[in-house]
Specification:
Blueprint lengths: L2 H20 L2 H56 L3 H75 L2 H30 L2 H27 L19 H8 L1
Length: 247
């Protein structure tokens, strides 16, 4: 292989790769859709011109038909008046009008077929454009999805679990420290002065209840009296005394 051919192949590979990298499928598809839509007004103008030609030929046909009828009437009138010279002149004009009418009818027939073909071509193009547009939108959606997948793949490639694991461990330790501190504060709160006072009040209530129980036992003779034991607790009134007072 010659050096020139090798160089040419290398250049084609180089520039081909650059062009391929710079090509954005979404932008190219969107531009293709715009180009197809821009051609629709041109097609409409072409169809309108063909249809205008058909209409002009139709008007020419009507005018020539009127001329044929007119020349025929003039010929008859000239013959009735004995003006053969004028009748002969009108016959020549009538023949020319009939020839023009035949040509116009042929042209009108061709123009009618051309109009139908132009309309059909325009409708086919619009239908094709709609199909291509729908296909292009689907491809654009797939392209966007592919980009997202590529970005996700790149993210997963650069994702290192070990680096984030240290962060998770650090956050876990921090949360554990905060939780332990909160529990300690709660424990301190329960052992505050108010809690101690409530505890003392409960103990005092229990002592009073025990003292009253001892008094009842002394009155019933189950325990020595408070005087014998040197106690200072006053004895409860007897049951009879309580009833007499009540009466």
């Amino acid at each position: 292989m010659s050096v020139w051919r090798r160089l040419k192949r290398s250049l084609r590979a180089l520039f081909g790769g650059l062009v391929e990298k710079t090509e954005d499928p979404e932008l190219l598809l969107q531009q293709t859709i715009r180009d197809m839509r821009d051609k629709v007004p041109e097609l409409n103008n072409s169809v309108a011109q063909v249809m205008a030609t058909e209409r002009l030929l139709a008007r020419s046909k009507e005018r020539l038909e009127e001329q044929v009828v007119g020349f025929d009437s003039k010929i008859k009138a000239a013959v009735k008046t004995g003006r053969d010279d004028i009748a002969t002149s009108y016959i020549g004009q009538l023949q020319q009008a009939q020839l023009d009418l035949q040509k116009t009818i042929q042209q009108l027939d061709q123009a009618g077929r051309a109009s139908q073909q132009a309309l059909k071509a325009r409708d086919n193009y619009v239908l094709k454009m709609q199909q291509r547009t729908a296909e292009a939108m689907q491809l654009i959606s797939q392209s966007k999805q592919a980009k997202l997948q590529e970005q996700l793949a790149q993210t997963m490639e650069t994702f290192q679990l070990g680096d984030d694991a240290s962060t998770f461990n650090e956050m876990r330790d921090k949360i554990d420290r905060r939780s332990a501190a909160a529990e300690a504060k709660m424990q301190l709160g329960t052992s505050s002065v108010d809690s101690q006072m409530q505890e003392i009040e409960r103990e005092a209530m229990d002592m009073q209840l025990e003292d009253k129980l001892l008094d009842y036992k002394r009155q019933m003779g189950l325990l020595p009296s408070a005087t014998a034991s040197g106690g200072n607790v006053a004895a409860l009134p007897a049951a009879d005394e309580t009833n007499n007072r009540g009466s």
